Amino acid sequence: MQTYIREDGMGEFTLRLQGELDHHASGEVISALRECAGRIPLRRLVLDLGGVTFSDSSGIAVTVLANRLVRGAGAELCIENTPPQMQRLFRTAGLGRILGEKNLQGGRNK
Prior knowledge:
Radius of gyration: 12 Å
Largest sheet: 4 strands, mixed
Distance between the termini: 25 Å
Number of domains: 1
CATH architecture: 2-Layer Sandwich
CATH class: Alpha Beta
Helix content: 40-55%
Number of helices: 4
Order of helices and strands: EEHEHEHH
Number of strands: 4
């Protein structure tokens, strides 16, 4: 798993994930999430899942943690480019109620 952080200079960060999101990779993603959530100002975090080739339940845990950290910082979480496999995983777990249905779609959710 590789993580890439992009900052727009106005409080919007994009965290792009590339590779398999499983138990072994989740620690790296959590560290990147904590780094983004600790930045000031944080207005919005875009979690770009377009490069995720596989996810197990760790993807659920990471996404729920991202939601908690970002909202706890008073910012907005947007999820984009969700692969179909992760969309099914999120729906099965009932994440639509937590994240909002628009965040479970595959395209850019602005």
